[in-house]
Every structure is written in structure tokens, then in C-alpha cells.
Amino acid sequence: MAKTKPVIITCAVTGAIHTPSMSPYLPVTPDEIRDAALGAAEAGAAIVHLHARDPETGKPSQETALFDQFLPDIKAKSDVVINLTTGGAPTMPVEERMGPAHHFAPELASLNMGSMNFGLYEMLGRFKEFEHDWEYPYLAESDDRIFKNTFRDIAHILDACGSNDTRFELECYDINHLYTAAHFLERGLLKAPLFIQSVFGLRGGIAGHPEDFMHMKRTADRLFGGDYHWSVLGAGRNQMNLGAMSVAMGSNVRVGLEDSLWDGPGQLAASNADQVKRIRSIVEALGLRVATPDEARDMLGLKGGDQVNF
User: Fold this and answer.
1) Which pLDDT score is estimated for 4?
2) What angle do CA 262, 263, 269 make, to 5 degrees?
3) What is each CA distance from 138 to 91, 98, 279, in whole angstroms?
4) pLDDT in tens, 25-47
């Protein structure tokens, strides 16, 4: 009988979607981001996915100096796999977005597999008051905003960051993004095994219906066969139900306050670790176990935490 693979839990601790006024628990300062990452790792996350923010305003920032205030501490205190964003925020050009991943040469970096509408404006239906001047227009003007990642942009990130032996979490917001991943695999800019992170429930991408979920899985299976590891990210209210579906189907899973601020209807999650604990309880209730960081490294073919530039 084949041995069941452990489940990789990724925790995305702050991101660039939610704004600070939405939740007092959203990590903003370098110390808060460090503590959130370490707490998620202790709770069972094998990978932490990291963005930075201006510590005064909470605005998304790709300043390497900010990352440098928490990356060494996380590495010193945990063996968790560190995954840096190349997505930054939809308002940023590609060179700014990829700067930290290129500079710090992490084991893993996220990579959005295409340009897309990226609508955050519907959050204004729930959140009405904002502490910082940037928050309202950041959300309201997203009805006329495109996250830009052209084929040239993707190739540039793959070439620049891949030259440091960084591997990629391929963020696929729709079916066409799977075909883009297959295209770069054929070009030799990606190498198997791929780490496909299917994203459900963002306005502008595929929705969170179970049929959407199954269509994404069938397409990935057809394109990549056994040469990929699948992970699922459900945005907002989709987080735990799609996470549970994915784990039951043998997938890996991503949680965190980047993807959802909630820990139940109308109840804000008090920490990233709480979301990790909840999805871990689902994993273990299904008779499975969570992967350790070193098991995740082995599954994904990562270079090791001693080969990074921080």
C-alpha cells in the first residue's frame, strides 16, 4: 500500500489585499510579521508566505530594508520554509514587486501566472471607516485596476529569481493560468515538480463553487500528470470549506490573514496561528498529518534554508 503524503500547510500572514483598518489582528510592523510567521510555524505551517508593510501606515511595501527586519529573525528561530512574494501589490510595477525575492534568494517565491482584473472594491460594502488616507482609494479604484504579469514579466521573474535556485509557488487564479504554467514548463523556464497554488474566490479570477474546484483539478491533472503538487487557497468565506475539500482530495492547503480575515461568520481571526490550527485539525480529523518543513523541502525540491541570502 502506497504511503500517504503529508499535507503541506502554507500560511500567508499579511499580504497586500486587506488594509489595517479591517482588522486589529492584521500584522503590519516587522515585529508583528515576524511573530505571526513564527506562530504559524509553531502551529503547523511548513511554509510561511511573506509580504512587508510600511510600519506607520500599513501600506504594502516591497522595500528590502523592511524585509530585512524580520527575515533573519524568522530563519534564526524556526526551520520553516520562507516564501517571498513577487506579487507585491497590484499597484506596483514588476521590478518593484520582484525586488525582495531577487535580493534575498529565498527557497520559494510566489508567482502570479498572468495579468488579471483584481477587484477589491466590494470590501467597501463591509468596511466603512479607515484610519489611513491610502486605504479607501486603494479599494475603491480597484474597479479600474489590472494586476499586470505579462508573458515577458513572468519570464523575467523566472529568469532573475530562478538563477538563485529559488523555486516558485505558481498562483493560478483561473484555468488559463494553468496553461501558462504548462507553456513555461515546455520552454524550460519551469522545472517539475511544479507547486500549483489554485486561488478561488477573488473578484477577477475563478469562483469558489465546487464545480470550479473540480475543473481546476481535472485540468491540472491533465496538463501535469504526476509532475506537480497541488495546493488550494480559498479567499474569504471560501477558506476553510475549500481547504477541507482540497485536503480530502489529497491536496495541500494555504490559509492566513492575507487570504481571509475570518475565523467563522462575523468573527475575526485573532491570529494566523488560529487559522493554521483550524485547518490542521481538519487534516488530522481526516486521518492525515501535516508536513514538516523538511518534508515540504523534499516534496518541492527546494534548495534548503542554508542557501538563502538572509
Assistant:
1) 82
2) 70
3) 9, 20, 30
4) 999 999 999 999 999 999 999 99
% of the chain surpassing 70 pLDDT: 99
The predicted structure's pLDDT at residue 1: 41
End-to-end CA distance of the chain: 42
* pLDDT for res 41: 98
Residue 184 grid coordinates: 513555461
Q: At what angle do helices 175-187 and 151-162 cross, to 10 degrees?
A: 50
Average pLDDT over residues 183-207: 97
Report how far residue 48's alpha carbon sits from residue 208's, in angstroms, rounded to the nearest whole number.
23
